[in-house]
Amino acid sequence: MTISRRISLTLLVAVVPCWASPASAFDGADVASQGVKAAGRLSLFETPSQAFRQGMDGYRSGNFKTSVEAFEYAAANGNPLARWKLGRMYASGDGVPQDDDKAYRYFSQIVANYDEEDGDRRDLSVVSNAFVAVGVYSLNGLPKTGVKADPERALEMFQYAALNFGNADAQYNLARLYLDGADGALPKDPRQAVRWLALAADKGHLQAQALLGHMLFNGFDGMPPQRAKGLMWLTMARDAALGGKDPKDAWIVDLYGKAASSASDSDRQVASLYLDEHHKRN
User: Fold this and answer.
1) I need a labelling partner for 66 at 20 to 30 A (CA). Which of 54, 113, 217, 230 fits?
2) pLDDT for the residue numbered 120
3) Quick one: pLDDT band at residue 259, thresholds 50, 70, 90?
4) Average pLDDT over the chain, rounded to an integer
5) Mean of the pLDDT values across residues 7-20?
């Protein structure tokens, strides 16, 4: 089985002990600097939330200059939604020049300012996804800006989001680390990988379903194949991949095709029963 070592930032979807929040990950100097720059626009916005709403209005209308100014004000004044939106925009070059360094810094601000003691958090999905984004950047590094690859920090980010938020993207990325190993930070452990893939797959994570199905169909780490169960997951992943029509998901269709071509009639029949049971439960 060949699995790419690099995890894409586009992959933005267990009862265990709580981990301490790694809030020391980001130097607050950037926040202060942005606050000074945003102060000049104070008269334009009554509150950070109002600035964020105005930024979204500008974004939806295609007025990116206005929206970025509003988002920057809201972000500099602690609005995690604005920080997430700016991070996403810079990560993908959506209305702004693509800039992974800026994206990383905005995502890091969210991680650094997360307070798990705050009981009234309506932005947990944003916080959860920010942990995953910082994990991906930490795993791959940013050579042009001096951010070195740090597998241990990537592992910390993925574990935190997987354990505390049940984030499917984090669970999938954590499984990938267990499959490949993490440069000394984590030994290879296919059985742990399957555990995390199963959790993400149950949440509908397309790539997790495909990898889980592939491993179960073929067997792994001395475990015998579960061909019908594997074919069930591969079928679900294939159907979703075809529905989405994303060229990046061609590998999923390919995995399904290879399994289906070697599956017996019995494998297909039992897989169909498993699939019906899964749909009924969900």
Assistant:
1) 113
2) 65
3) very high
4) 85
5) 36
DSSP per-residue string spanning the chain: ----SSPPTT------PPPPP-GGGS-THHHHHHHHHHHTTGGG-SSHHHHHHHHHHHHHTT-HHHHHHHHHHHHHTT-HHHHHHHHHHHHHTSSS---HHHHHHHHHHHHHT--TT-S--S-HHHHHHHHHHHHHHHHH-BGGGTB---HHHHHHHHHHHHHHS--HHHHHHHHHHHHH--TTSS---HHHHHHHHHHHHHTT-HHHHHHHHHHHHH-BTTBPP-HHHHHHHHHHHHHHHHHHT-GGGHHHHHHHHHHHHH--HHHHHHHHHHHHHHHHH-
Task: Tell me how far CA of residue 62 lies from CA of 58, 90, 102, in angstroms.
Answer: 6, 15, 21
Total domains, the chain: 1
Is the per-residue pLDDT at 31 higher than 70?
A: no
Q: What is the residue range of 239's domain?
A: 196-282
Q: How far is CA 150 from the centre of its chain?
A: 17
Please give the angle made by the CA atoms of 48, 53 and 59, to the nearest 5 degrees. Answer: 120
In a domain, 281, yes or no: yes
Specify if 129 maps to a domain.
Answer: no
Looking up tokens 């992974």 gives 100
Angstrom distances, CA of residue 40 to CA of 34, 36, 37: 11, 8, 6
The pLDDT of residue 3:
38
User: Would you say residue 255 lies in a domain?
Assistant: yes
- The pTM score is 0.82
